């Protein structure tokens, strides 16, 4: 495989494209090993620059012929592209190239998956298809003709002429090449229609391979229609083509892709039936379908000027899909899930891979599809909204689309829209985009009683952001801290307020009838780590009383994390947390989904991170033992209430994947999990009686986590051997619940099974993502976890550099641990870096992690 030269690209070097494109016409003559691509591209000089250099990106296509204005041309073709001396006026460029989709195991460009042709062009896959200015600020309307005997031939936009062996498509909306898509294969549609608010009928279809997958599209279609209606109601944004197609593909590097009018999905985030997908997967499908659909405006109609601006489309679109999920499910529960996702971002921010939401340089842009760009990017939009208010946000977004429709823009343009529409954006908000690292906000209080009764309460907040790679010093950023002040009976003493901490420190005073318990950072109002001296009693008080569900959950979480840290240092479990959880489990008032989230203990990685934050080197074995001991203590404290809780939460109605039923099943599963530690029988029975995959996986996980379940696991594997996505779960559970000293060996043995396929990223993630998720196993003192991971990353890198680079992030916390473990992890990273023919993608990641 040809690799582009590994040179860093810098935001500061941005220059406008010398040539713009008025029109693109493509013909694809499909053949698995020798596809011909004929392009006709109308170029015109860009009036915004004097530069007339003509260079097209190209990574792999073999040039067969090329012409300028009809006359044969002889361009210079190098590894990274094609150059020629252009005429000094608009001209027509024509090329014919040949590519080999079957040999494309990188899953970028045009490739084959189970006999189907499909494409992935974000970020720089189009250049693997043909020569083109493959940058997002070059936008053009595309016309595509596909020639093939395959029955279904799809591309972007609206369908045009079609006949035996060909189909044409026209996309009138100018788009960058990264949004190009083509799919061809033996596919069947699940169809529906959506009528837009202005009365246009849109033909919807989800395409799958013929067979069982055909019956697993209904939920995706329903989610799509809900999302289309929601975007009209919430943002006044309607769909803009006659058709909207979604295709399910088994081999795909990421979740899904928002190609204009032709979304391509990893089959794991689109196909679902009660028997083959869990509640969580249904929820993910709903969110991802919405996310890709919302990109039609935030990303496609208004796109990014360059890849440094990726958060412009991703942060905003994640925020929009979060708002959607909050509306169609439980807002409180969704917010807690988002905060949990942000823990992954905090981990990234605390390690060698920390980077700003808008990075300043990259080697392989695909390495920047990160939690920071996506998740933290969404938090920045949320903070902007909370600062300017709902109306200000609505006005700003209206202006954004009015001003920038059809353009490729920057974060400066985005912030300018907020300034122009509202006039109230804090001066230094832009720092959130340019500074990496998670701010630490410390809170201190003072209480001065008054003789007349009550007193003055002073709250002092200060912020500090730790150094991150390449950024030793940080300036203060505007931080909205949503705050409540609670009385001893749990009532709010004043109306909740958003305190905006703009400088390094700030102070607020309140006249109050009694000394309050502060409830800070309600709703996770800013992506910061709050530091406050609080005792367990106060946390238990907030867990029991805080009216803000996020703050309530967070108090419980803190309580558990602190306890686990103490236990990892040798302390015994005390009874405060088990009793608090028991009280919550038996309190019928809160939503079952919320109670289930509260019952889940922090992960071993969370505890390791907390210890590291305190300046200690976490011992993975001690953390594992502590968490196991606490789980048992909680089980025992709840022993008498667990069967009742499980019985009360058992769903007997026909399966629905909605928030209500999923919440009940989640709490049922949590109870079953604790129960299994004391008695395996209920989980064994639940496994046999399960009527859907959610119950089946909950029961099997409960058994495996309690050291049982070998027979059930074998039964599961046999029954699901023909179902790729369900079998992924089996692969994953084997490793996830293996004893720490066996985890690496289990992963290795699974990867050598015939069902393991290095070309399928889902399967790789199932095994090696689970190895990283087995904290004490991956970080086992023997170093076997590190060695096995390195071995398989290298094998994967030879086929699929992007996927290998992503999975290498499993090493990002290696500096936390003791010198011995660090030496072993460092050696594994060195072995990766020394490998012959290492891809630039994996080299960049392993190098950054090792530094
Ligand atoms: N834009 C997609 C994610 C995506 C990014 C890169 C890909 O290939 C390297 C594929 C998909 C989204 O946000 O859903
Ligand atoms: Zn996206």
Automatic annotation (TrEMBL):
<dbReference type="Pfam" id="PF17900">
    <property type="entry name" value="Peptidase_M1_N"/>
</dbReference>
<keyword id="KW-0862">Zinc</keyword>
<dbReference type="GO" id="GO:0008270">
    <property type="term" value="F:zinc ion binding"/>
</dbReference>
<feature type="domain" description="Peptidase M1 membrane alanine aminopeptidase">
    <location>
        <begin position="219"/>
        <end position="423"/>
    </location>
</feature>
<dbReference type="InterPro" id="IPR038438">
    <property type="entry name" value="PepN_Ig-like_sf"/>
</dbReference>
<dbReference type="GO" id="GO:0008237">
    <property type="term" value="F:metallopeptidase activity"/>
</dbReference>
<dbReference type="InterPro" id="IPR012779">
    <property type="entry name" value="Peptidase_M1_pepN"/>
</dbReference>
<protein>
    <recommendedName>
        <fullName>Aminopeptidase N</fullName>
        <ecNumber>3.4.11.2</ecNumber>
    </recommendedName>
</protein>
<keyword id="KW-0479">Metal-binding</keyword>
<keyword id="KW-0645">Protease</keyword>
<dbReference type="Pfam" id="PF17432">
    <property type="entry name" value="DUF3458_C"/>
</dbReference>
<feature type="domain" description="Peptidase M1 alanyl aminopeptidase C-terminal">
    <location>
        <begin position="536"/>
        <end position="849"/>
    </location>
</feature>
<dbReference type="GO" id="GO:0016285">
    <property type="term" value="F:alanyl aminopeptidase activity"/>
</dbReference>
<dbReference type="InterPro" id="IPR024601">
    <property type="entry name" value="Peptidase_M1_pepN_C"/>
</dbReference>
<dbReference type="InterPro" id="IPR045357">
    <property type="entry name" value="Aminopeptidase_N-like_N"/>
</dbReference>
<dbReference type="Pfam" id="PF01433">
    <property type="entry name" value="Peptidase_M1"/>
</dbReference>
<feature type="domain" description="Aminopeptidase N-like N-terminal">
    <location>
        <begin position="102"/>
        <end position="179"/>
    </location>
</feature>
<dbReference type="Pfam" id="PF11940">
    <property type="entry name" value="DUF3458"/>
</dbReference>
<dbReference type="InterPro" id="IPR014782">
    <property type="entry name" value="Peptidase_M1_dom"/>
</dbReference>
<keyword id="KW-0378">Hydrolase</keyword>
<dbReference type="GO" id="GO:0006508">
    <property type="term" value="P:proteolysis"/>
</dbReference>
<keyword id="KW-0031">Aminopeptidase</keyword>
<feature type="domain" description="Peptidase M1 alanyl aminopeptidase Ig-like fold">
    <location>
        <begin position="437"/>
        <end position="532"/>
    </location>
</feature>
<dbReference type="InterPro" id="IPR027268">
    <property type="entry name" value="Peptidase_M4/M1_CTD_sf"/>
</dbReference>
<comment type="similarity">
    <text>Belongs to the peptidase M1 family.</text>
</comment>
<dbReference type="InterPro" id="IPR035414">
    <property type="entry name" value="Peptidase_M1_pepN_Ig-like"/>
</dbReference>
<dbReference type="InterPro" id="IPR037144">
    <property type="entry name" value="Peptidase_M1_pepN_C_sf"/>
</dbReference>
<keyword id="KW-0482">Metalloprotease</keyword>
<dbReference type="InterPro" id="IPR042097">
    <property type="entry name" value="Aminopeptidase_N-like_N_sf"/>
</dbReference>
<dbReference type="InterPro" id="IPR001930">
    <property type="entry name" value="Peptidase_M1"/>
</dbReference>
């Amino acid at each position: 495989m040809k690799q582009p030269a590994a040179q860093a690209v810098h935001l500061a070097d941005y220059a406008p494209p010398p040539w713009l494109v008025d029109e693109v016409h493509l013909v694809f003559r499909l053949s698995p090993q020798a596809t011909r691509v004929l392009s006709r591209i109308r170029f015109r000089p860009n009036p915004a620059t004097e530069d007339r250099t003509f260079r097209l990106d190209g990574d792999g296509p073999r040039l067969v012929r090329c012409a300028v204005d009809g006359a044969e041309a002889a361009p210079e073709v190098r590894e990274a592209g094609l150059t020629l001396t252009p005429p000094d006026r608009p001209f027509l460029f024509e090329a014919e190239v040949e590519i080999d989709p079957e040999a494309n195991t990188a899953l970028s460009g045009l490739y084959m998956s189970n006999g189907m042709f499909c494409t992935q062009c974000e970020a720089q896959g189009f250049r693997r298809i043909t020569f083109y200015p493959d940058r997002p600020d070059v936008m053009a309307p595309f016309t595509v003709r596909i020639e093939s005997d395959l029955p279904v031939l799809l591309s972007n936009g609206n369908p045009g002429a079609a006949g035996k062996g060909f189909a044409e498509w026209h996309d009138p909306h100018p788009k960058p090449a990264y949004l190009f898509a083509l799919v061809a294969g033996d596919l069947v549609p699940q169809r529906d229609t959506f009528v837009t608010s202005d009365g246009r009928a849109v033909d919807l279809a989800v395409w799958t391979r013929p067979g069982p997958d055909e019956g697993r599209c209904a939920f995706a279609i329903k989610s799509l229609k809900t999302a289309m209606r929601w975007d009209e109601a919430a943002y006044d944004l309607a769909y803009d083509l006659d058709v909207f197609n979604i295709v399910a593909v088994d081999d795909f590097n990421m979740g899904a892709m928002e190609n204009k009018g032709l979304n391509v999905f990893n089959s794991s985030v689109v196909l679902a039936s009660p028997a083959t997908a869990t509640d969580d997967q249904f929820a993910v499908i709903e969110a991802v379908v919405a996310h890709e659909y919302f990109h039609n405006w935030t990303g496609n109609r208004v796109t990014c000027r360059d890849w440094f601006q990726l958060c412009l489309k991703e942060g905003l679109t994640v925020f929009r899909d979060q708002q959607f999920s909050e509306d169609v499910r439980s807002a409180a529960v969704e917010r807690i899930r988002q905060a949990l996702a942000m823990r992954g971002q905090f981990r990234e921010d605390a390690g060698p891979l920390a980077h700003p939401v808008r990075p300043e340089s990259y080697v392989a842009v695909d390495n920047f599809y990160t939690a920071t760009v996506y998740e933290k990017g969404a938090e920045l939009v949320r903070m902007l909204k909370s600062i300017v208010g709902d109306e200000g946000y609505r006005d700003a977004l209206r202006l954004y689309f009015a001003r920038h429709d059809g353009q490729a823009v920057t974060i400066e343009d985005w912030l300018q829209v907020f300034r122009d529409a509202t006039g109230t954006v804090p001066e230094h908000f832009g720092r959130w985009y340019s500074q990496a690292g998670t701010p630490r906000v410390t809170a201190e209080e003072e209480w001065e009683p008054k003789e007349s009764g009550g007193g003055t309460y002073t709250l002092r907040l200060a912020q500090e952001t730790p150094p991150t790679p390449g950024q030793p010093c940080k300036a203060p950023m505007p931080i909205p801290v949503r705050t409540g002040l609670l009385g001893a009976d749990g009532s709010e003493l004043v109306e909740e307020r958003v305190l905006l901490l703009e400088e390094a420190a700030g102070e607020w005073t309140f006249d109050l009838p009694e000394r309050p318990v502060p409830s800070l950072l309600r709703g996770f109002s800013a992506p910061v780590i709050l530091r406050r001296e609080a005792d367990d009693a106060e946390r238990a008080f907030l867990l029991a009383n805080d009216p803000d569900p996020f703050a309530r959950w967070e108090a419980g979480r803190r309580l558990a994390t602190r306890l686990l840290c103490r236990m990892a240092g040798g302390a015994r479990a005390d009874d405060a947390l088990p009793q608090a959880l028991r009280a919550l489990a038996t309190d019928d008032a809160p939503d079952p989904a919320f109670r289930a989230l509260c019952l889940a203990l922090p992960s071993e990685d969370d505890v390791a991170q907390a210890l590291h934050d305190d300046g200690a080197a976490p011992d993975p074995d001690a953390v594992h033992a502590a968490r196991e001991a606490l789980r048992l203590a909680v089980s025992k404290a709840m022993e008498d209430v667990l069967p009742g809780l499980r019985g009360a939460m058992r769903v007997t109605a026909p399966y629905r994947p909605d928030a209500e039923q999923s919440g009940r099943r989640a709490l049922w599963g949590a109870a079953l999990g604790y129960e299994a530690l004391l008695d395996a029988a209920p989980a064994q029975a639940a496994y046999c009686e399960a009527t859907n995959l959610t119950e089946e996986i909950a029961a099997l996980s409960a058994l495996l986590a309690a050291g049982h379940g070998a027979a059930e696991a074998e039964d599961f594997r046999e029954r699901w051997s023909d179902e790729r996505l369900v079998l992924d779960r089996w692969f994953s559970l084997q490793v996830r619940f293996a004893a720490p000293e066996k985890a690496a060996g289990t992963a290795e043995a699974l990867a050598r099974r015939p069902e393991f396929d290095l070309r399928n990223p889902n399967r790789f993630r199932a095994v090696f993502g689970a190895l990283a998720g087995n904290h004490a196993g991956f970080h086992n003192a023997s170093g076997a976890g590190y060695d096995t991971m390195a071995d398989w990353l290298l094998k994967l890198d030879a086929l699929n550099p992007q996927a290998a680079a992503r999975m290498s992030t499993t090493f990002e916390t290696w500096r936390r641990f003791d010198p011995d473990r660090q030496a072993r992890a460092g050696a594994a990273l060195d072995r990766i870096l020394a490998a012959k023919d290492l891809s630039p993608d994996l080299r960049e990641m392993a190098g950054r992690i090792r530094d």
